[in-house]
Amino acid sequence: MERGYKKIFWGLFFVTFHLNLGPLQLLPPFIGWLITISGVHELTAKLQNSSISTESFQRAVTVAWGLVVLTFIGSMGTLASAGELMESSIFLYYPIIVIMLEIITFFYILEGTHKVFSELSFEERKSETQKKLRTYLVMVIPSALIMTFTLFFNHSSSMVIGIILAIIAVIYLLVFFSQLKKFWMQDPLGKPLIEERANAIPEEG
Amino acid sequence: MQRCNIAKRQLLCPFVLTFQEGGRNVEINRKILKVGIFLIGALVVLGYVGVYLLTLEEPVFIEHYIEEQLYTGDQQGPRQAYVELYYITNVNDKRVVSKVDFPEYPDIQIPVSEYGMHGGFTMFSDGQQQLPGTIEGRYNMRTVYLEFAFGEDYQDAESIEITEAIVHLSDGSVFETEIGSINFHFDEPRSEMLESRGSSGSSYRTDMEFIARADVELIGLESPFLTLIDENLEMTINGRDYHEMNGMEIEEGKRVFIQTKIGNADGIEEDFRYLKLRPKLRFISEDSKEETVSLIVGWYRSPEYDFIEILQYLQQKGAL
């Protein structure tokens, strides 16, 4: 599990912070999303033989593939030949559509995480995951709304507020994924075999 | 607690509560997500509708009413004048004006630039310069700088009045538009009978002083665009409203003190009317000859706008 969350952490990191070498992006966002998808696949693989539902993780993967396609188009758009097309009105809300899909992806990843903790009776972790998800949503949704508004009106000072709020939300999420990674590395029960723990929980009725 | 009572065994109560609270949290988060995504999506759709409705088919030039003074450092050299024209275009319009022709005067060929006369002409631009203009919402208010120069073959420049322009953009597109009226003056009229003693001016207020070297009788003001500014013009001559100046006698050695204030534009149409006037004072001299003297300091009014005002103006012009 820690490998899965580690990959999700780095995936989100590369999606948010990328290095540019002139017009060339060294690690374009779609690579970050591929790393994230690989991380979620690790989680579902771990849960494959257990009774824990992986439905949310699978949904996250589906949405994240949409992000791979979109951000790949976006990366191509940074090349000089397609630059003008990306600056046209059709792509005005491209960043907002990416953020919308990003919110849905992380919602499903955290919902899946919540289910894992719920099924394994990690009550504190379960409740914490929901709280973290809510805090993330409460930050990122207003940020996206502000950015949608300011992209239309070209109001740069409001745009700065939206971007700062979005960065805080992402850092908040990064810290939580880092905690999840550490949790599964330093589980007091000693790297639990999920299958065993899940199977050990008596079924209802 | 009511639900807790439903639990048959008291020992299970904390688990029931935790489970239900957890479930409620999940539901609340789902609702936050759904409402949030719906709101963002709705704003995006509205935004695209707005962009579609507010996009200009072609740039819109505002009205300019300009009296421009031609000057020369050398009496033999060409008479020159710099003129600014304002236009509104879409915020994402990367094109710039590369050439301006005048259908009324096809032989006038002049350099133009959107980067100022010292910022490099667009014909030499490598396309890497920052986009010019002032962005307001979905629009960009641009300025085109024109450098007029009239040689000897244009001794008749005084009679030139430009009202239309054929605008060439850097992508090769061309359109014809009305620009208001640009007039040229060769010389600022001076008079030995009314001698200027000084002037000071700002964008909206000017003070001027003349001294009469002979008995003169003021008749009025002269400017082709006086009617455009009449309602906003507060002007006094020796403390009297300028409308009452006709017949005002100034004795030799007396001063003529003129205070001028141009008030705020009245309405959207006036807000977007660029004015640059060089009015003259008309008077009758001792020998009953009519003369004019320049008021030295011109009157200016540049467009003042925000996004909503640009929208109103474009709607009023039928450009949207």
Strand content of chain B: 35-45%
- State the largest interface: A-B, 34 and 30 residues
Q: How many structural domains are formed by the residues of chain A?
A: 1
Q: What is the typical, i.e. mean, pLDDT of chain B? A: 82
Straight-line N-to-C gap of chain B: 62 Å
**Counting H and I runs of at least 4 residues, what is the number of helices of chain A?**
8
Description:
The complex is a heterodimer of chains A (205) and B (320). Chain A has helices at residues 2-16, 29-47, 55-77, 80-86, 94-119, 123-153, 156-185, 194-200; strands spanning 20-21, 24-25. With 205 residues, chain A is mainly α. Chain A has one domain (2-194). In chain A, helix 6 runs antiparallel to helix 7. The radius of gyration of chain A is 19 Å and the shape is globular. The two termini of chain A are 29 Å apart. Chain B has 320 residues and is an alpha+beta fold. In chain B, the strands form four sheets. In chain B, strands 4-8-9-2-17-20 form a six-stranded mixed sheet. Classes of the chains: A mainly alpha (205), B alpha+beta (320). The A-B interface holds A 84, 87-89, 92-93, 96-97, 99-100, 103-104, 107, 111, 114, 118, 123, 126-127, 130-131, 133-134, 137-138, 141, 144-145, 148-149, 151-154 and B 18, 21-22, 25-26, 28-29, 32-33, 36-37, 39-41, 43-44, 47-48, 50-52, 55, 91-92, 94, 135-138, 307.
Could you give the topology of this structure?
The complex is a heterodimer of chains A (205) and B (320).
Chain A: H1 2-16, E1 20-21, E2 24-25, H2 29-47, H3 55-77, H4 80-86, H5 94-119, H6 123-153, H7 156-185, H8 194-200
Antiparallel strand pairs in A: 1-2
Chain B: H1 2-6, H2 13-54, E1 60-61, E2 63-69, E3 79-90, E4 97-101, E5 112-113, E6 134-136, E7 139-150, E8 161-169, E9 174-185, E10 194-201, E11 205-212, E12 216-222, H3 226-229, E13 233-237, E14 240-241, E15 249-250, E16 255-262, H4 268-271, E17 273-277, E18 280-284, E19 290-294, E20 299-301, H5 307-317
Parallel strand pairs in B: 2-9, 2-17
Antiparallel strand pairs in B: 1-3, 3-7, 4-8, 5-7, 6-7, 8-9, 10-11, 11-16, 12-15, 12-18, 13-14, 13-16, 17-20, 18-19
